[in-house]
Amino acid sequence: MKKVVIVGGGISGLCSAYYLVKEGYEVSVIDQGDISTGASFINAGYLTPSHFTPLAEPGMITKGLQWMLRSSSPFYIKPRFDMEFFKWAFHFKKSATLEKVEKAIPVLTEINLKSRDLYESMLESLDFDFHYERKGLLMVYKNTESEKHELKLAERAVNEGLEAKNISKEELKKRYPIFSDEVIGAVHYECDAHTTPNEFMKNLKSWLEKQGVRFILHQEVKEIVSENNRIIAVKTQGAVIEGDEFILAAGCWTSSLAKSLKINIPIQGGKGYSINVQRPMGITIPAILVEAKVAVTPMKDFTRFAGTMEFSGMNSIIRKPRVKAIADSVQDYYRNIVITEEERDAAVSGLRPVSPDGLPFIGRTSAYKNLTIAAGHAMMGWSLGPITGKLITEVISGSDTSVKLDPFKVERFN
């Protein structure tokens, strides 16, 4: 039985373990924490075929520079001298062209749809239980400029085969009276679904443990040992873990681990924040508050408010102005909903692994025959977890892959 070692216990790592176990592999998962925090636990829980455009869109760098001095802006770049970030930003700017966005749209649409279907297959398998609802996602807006942009995107979505419908202010008020009078309409992406990440991750980990997956937790990788173009072991402060195949699925930390092997995988941590409200709120459908760029999700037993994309280095610092911006925006879009100071103070953060072109890195490296990468999913990490795990397993087993991997080449920025 082949032994597979996965570095990283986020959604990509655990989904890779899931499909590898299904194929009969012996799996070990190494994580520097206890697999209870981070982006895989604090995200909005969306499965988003609707998110078919990459973060690297034309004009995004300009917006980031304009917002740089606004600590409460939804897209924030902290001024700092960081050569790795400068290199990443250079690749980001080169990727933010209409031509590259057009190429990415069908790719992102396909893998999001396949991943959503895999979530449903997981649920139907009865391997482990988790909250899943396919109510769709509302893109809710307050001004005519946003309306024009969202309707154009919805038209494109329909052309890509997705279910998207415009909802007028009157119809929205009738269906969902909880929205304020400031909201002038919405686009309903019926193709989308949502989950409760905390529950999913906990139950998947429990199932994997029952299948014999070995979890090596609170262990930071100190060295990846190679010999003759093959990885032979991973060293932590307390163990040496040998294997036949190795997977780097360590989120933002994948970049530095790959660098130690002289592999260039440019990834930056894009910090997001989330606030959980345990009391009843009357919110029944997921929504993105377009101008504020805040995601609202009715999860199992609580409601989550999440948002921001902050590039400020590898840290978990909670910046109160950014939390306040999320909380304040909720009052603008909903009637009689106020997030309390206590709820704001309990906000948490996580680092999304953001690639320069908005596409993940999935596949083999050319430098090492038994090293596979699964990282760089940006804001779609949760949505793409199952398809990533499936693809990684297909690569390792030598099977035909569910989608073509050319757009996700690991060394495309060399």
Automatic annotation (TrEMBL):
<keyword id="KW-0560">Oxidoreductase</keyword>
<dbReference type="GO" id="GO:0005737">
    <property type="term" value="C:cytoplasm"/>
</dbReference>
<feature type="domain" description="FAD dependent oxidoreductase">
    <location>
        <begin position="3"/>
        <end position="394"/>
    </location>
</feature>
<dbReference type="GO" id="GO:0016491">
    <property type="term" value="F:oxidoreductase activity"/>
</dbReference>
<protein>
    <submittedName>
        <fullName>Amino acid dehydrogenase</fullName>
    </submittedName>
</protein>
<dbReference type="InterPro" id="IPR036188">
    <property type="entry name" value="FAD/NAD-bd_sf"/>
</dbReference>
<dbReference type="Pfam" id="PF01266">
    <property type="entry name" value="DAO"/>
</dbReference>
<dbReference type="InterPro" id="IPR006076">
    <property type="entry name" value="FAD-dep_OxRdtase"/>
</dbReference>
